[in-house]
Specification:
28% of the residues lie in helices and 23% in strands. The chain has 450 residues and is an alpha+beta fold. The longest helix is centred in the N-terminal third of the chain and has 13 residues, at 55-67. It binds flavin-adenine dinucleotide.
Length: 450
Amino acid sequence: MRDIAGLKAALDGITLSDDRALLRQKSRDFYWYSPILKARMDGLSAELWAQPRNEAEVLRALAAARVRGVPVTVRGGATGNYGQCVPLDGGLVLDTTAMTAPLALTDGVLVAEAGARMIDLDLWARERGWELRLWPSTKRSATIGGFVAGGGAGVGGIAHGTMRERGNLLGLRVATMQDPPAILDIEGDEAAPVNRTYGTTGVITQVRMPVAPAQAWRDVALAFPEYGAAVRFAHALSYADGIAKKMCAAFQPVLVPYFKGIADAVPKGTALVLAMVTTAGMVALRDMAREHGGALVAEQDTVAAERDPHATPFYEYCWNHTTLQVLKQDRGVTYLQCRFPFDGTVEAVEAATALFPDEVWMHTECVRFGGRITMSALPVIRWRDAARLAEIMAAFEALGIGIANPHVFTIEEGSGYRRVPGDQLGFKRMADPLGLLNPGKMRDFTRADP
Ligand SMILES: Cc1cc2nc3c(=O)[nH]c(=O)nc-3n(C[C@H](O)[C@H](O)[C@H](O)COP(=O)(O)OP(=O)(O)OC[C@H]3O[C@@H](n4cnc5c(N)ncnc54)[C@H](O)[C@@H]3O)c2cc1C
């Protein structure tokens, strides 16, 4: 029996709750996208919720949990998709969302507390002439710490790759579960074992990352007579070095009616490309679209849209927001995460799209990996059962398409091509020898002295 009452008493002065309804709410993320994870995770709940305001309170919470053998699961914006911040074994949920301060921006290096929302950091940086290089389509609710620990791809990927690339994460301050818990200030390759390890290797308290000079971004929507033309255009746009861009995605016509804010602007039955390009790139973009048989059908100022709670920046139709837009109207779908081969990318997209026309609705995002351009896909999938999902994954893999399986919750099984190189297991053994941080999410970890 865990001493939660003792833990609560020891954390006096820190914002806490053991209200059961609140605990259930604070123990969830977007795991329900996956019917497989939904069956496994529905009903799981922490036993105590704490919201530290600073590093000192984080360390106090970790020390008090460690001495009582209570597991700790970190939670940021809770927009993760694989039950990453769902506690598998109860314990304490440590909520970072009161640690939100941007701390410094000097010579293109941003330092911020881990619980800062990415939208707020981007706007703060913009006031100083800079912008985030990368953000997830959940920018308006995700935290910077959650993006590092659980996400890592998204808008900006066509220019800067993913968070896996050296240089996209400069350094971290991270609280360990050692005896006693301590703060490590690590940078470069040293910080890699905390990158995309779901809070199993430490609690990030501060993030240091590079930012880019701010640009005037336009959201653009372009219609194409069929999906193949949209994919070819999107792929060509990624190589068009004269047109600065932050995002470029192609959607099959079947998905367009689910995009409430722009569906009416897109001619019925046409395929869609959504992109973010600079104002300076608009003339070249129109010329290029004409050459590919497409036409601009809608545009808006990206920053104005994301500041307006009633508007939808176009990136909220992209990445894993595509699935969400469909799920809002049809709960019978799920999704996959794929990466197409570098050579023959367009052909592989067309081949995969042709495989399951009634069950898989394709949507591809242009992205760089290790300096090479390809497409990621988050296809929407009509859910039948786990066996059928496995067949679809196997068929994709047979075409040379990599899968980062979003229907499993361990780092090792799920991350696929998104896994960050580095000695994650060795770091965990040092930073969390008792295995109290988000237990169950790093499959290969076992306690040395149980
Ligand atoms: C509609 C939708 C669209 C999405 N689009 C994208 C996308 O474009 N790109 C992308 O990469 N992801 C995407 N995601 C997944 C998710 O939104 C992102 O990964 C996001 O960055 C997670 O941030 P968060 O603050 O919500 O993290 P959370 O969900 O709170 O946490 C994610 C993981 O990180 C850990 N964690 C959180 N904070 C810390 C910390 N301070 N220290 C240590 N560990 C921590 C948690 O324990 C958990 O394991 C999407 C999800 C949804 C639902």
